[in-house]
Design goal:
Helices cover 26% and strands 22% of the residues. The protein has 2 domains: 190 residues, Chloramphenicol Acetyltransferase; 206 residues, Chloramphenicol Acetyltransferase (2-Layer Sandwich). The two termini are 39 Å apart. The relative contact order is 0.17. With 451 residues, the chain is of the alpha+beta class. Keywords: Acyltransferase, Transferase. Belongs to the plant acyltransferase family. Its EC number is 2.3.1.144.
Length: 451
């Protein structure tokens, strides 16, 4: 009979990922030297980690792994002609202002090839945490500032027993979620036979903000380093889980929050506001906080249509800002859900062009480099968006079976929202929480509905 040690060894061998090669891809055409100043919307994210996305694809008899890798590299060479900033590096000008630099001599995007033929798609699609993802996505624990000497995009392609995993690490100092999925959709478009992309990226960052900010960045202590003297508090044990809310569940949440329309003539609560307050209230309840404690809700909001003048949807860069709002725990959990939804709605609606401009001027006068966990006390922070077309990223061998975030930029209360695989209005809610809080949330029938 196999011992426990033998079983553990066998499990480790099954989950083993072997790196088989590393190459770099540049734009197919010579583009010369290009420089793009990073602006106030970009700079605060220098001390975040690379943003990681994982796309899982089923295998196909018509597409061997080598064929898939070759097709992806060929398509990448074409799409980087438009998205060439991703093939560059971070740099600074003579005044110490950060910028993206590209020239034809740079190495380009890093492509890692790997095999993990002991892992099946099912092993990964049922994975609620991110432990098994670590070996499948590059640049774990790598800060965006390291883009001074690393590629701004790294992609790992791993052959599974019955499929392929694409793990991407994007430098968050140069692009947000909208730009990420614009690039991914464009890359898929080329791989599917298009000779050019349908929507070119808008590369003129300084049209959104042209203030030059000199930064002398000293990196903060690594928040994941328990030995850090700067913060002796213990690092909480986190768990991640994906809660899949069907279209019917989303409709139920929205109709409940809108059951008693406000008397002040406010707009009905949106799907996002309804789901956001549902998550905020139930996570706060699971944390077992005191009624007088404060809790913060944070959303990283797209400002493309909020700035003056508005920027096109194709604006390439970061055009997001964190919107914070807070209330007492007792007010949030003891009032009906429309109370919290109104708090969120007011904060979002107040974040207009004037508020964005004031926030930018305040930051420029005293620049503060955020850490990924600076979202607030007892917080629920929402990133990503169910509007991103993540299941449309089809390179020619089918849509993804699952789309997930990697291990980077996670903290207690971080939430990523994705389209549900079943389509329609279904939404996947990926949450990181302290282990005990997650256990209580998993037992909360009012939160789960039919999940």
């Amino acid at each position: 009979m196999a011992s426990q040690a033998d079983n553990k060894k066998k499990e480790e061998e099954t989950l083993k990922v072997n790196i088989t090669g590393k190459t770099h891809v540049k734009p197919n055409k010579k583009l010369g030297r290009r420089e793009y100043q990073l602006v106030t919307f970009d700079l605060p994210y220098l001390a975040f980690y690379y943003n990681q996305k994982l796309l899982l694809y089923k295998g196909s008899a018509d597409h061997g792994f080598e064929d898939i890798v070759g097709k992806l590299k060929d398509g990448l060479g074409v799409v980087l002609e438009d998205f060439h900033q991703l093939a560059g590096k971070l740099g600074k000008d003579e005044d110490g202002v950060f910028r993206v630099e590209y020239d034809d001599d740079m190495e380009g995007v890093e492509i890692v090839e790997a095999t993990a033929e002991g892992i099946s798609l099912d092993d990964l699609t049922v994975e609620e945490g991110t432990t098994s993802f670590k070996e499948l996505i590059p640049y774990n624990g790598i800060l965006n500032l390291e883009g001074l000497h690393r590629p701004l995009l790294a992609v790992q392609l791993t052959k599974l027993k019955d499929g392929v995993v694409m793990g991407c690490a994007f430098n968050h100092a140069i692009l947000d979620g909208t730009s990420t999925w614009h690039f991914m959709s464009s890359w898929a478009e080329i791989c599917n036979g298009a000779t050019s992309i349908s929507v070119s990226p808008f590369l003129q960052r300084t049209k959104a903000r042209d203030t030059r900010v000199k930064l002398d960045v000293t990196l903060p202590p690594d928040p994941l380093d328990a030995s850090s003297e700067a913060d002796a508090r213990p690092v909480p044990q986190l768990r991640e889980k994906v809660f899949k809310f069907s279209e019917a569940a989303i409709d139920m949440i929205k109709s409940k929050v809108n059951a008693n329309p406000p008397l002040d003539g406010s707009k009905p609560f949106s799907t996002f506001q309804s789901l956001a307050v549902h998550i905020w209230r139930h996570v706060t309840h699971a944390r077992e906080l005191k009624p007088e404690d404060y809790t913060v809700f944070t959303v990283f909001a797209d400002c493309r249509k909020r700035v003056d003048p508005p920027m096109p949807e194709s604006y390439f860069g970061n055009l997001i800002q964190a919107i914070f709002t807070a209330t007492a725990v007792g007010l949030l959990t003891m009032n009906p859900p429309e109370f919290g939804a109104a708090v969120i709605q007011k904060a979002i609606e107040a974040h207009d062009a004037k508020a964005i401009n004031e926030r930018n001027k305040e930051w420029e006068s005293a620049p503060k480099i955020f850490q990924f966990k600076d979202a607030g006390v007892n917080c629920v922070a929402v990133g990503s968006s169910p509007r991103f077309p993540v299941y449309d990223v089809d390179f020619g061998w089918g849509k993804p079976e699952s789309v997930r975030s990697g291990c980077n930029n996670r903290f207690d209360g971080m939430v990523y929202l994705y389209q549900g695989k079943s389509g329609g209005r279904s939404i996947d809610v990926e949450i990181s929480l302290e282990a005990g809080v997650m256990e209580r949330l998993e037992k909360d029938k009012d939160f789960l509905l039919e999940v």
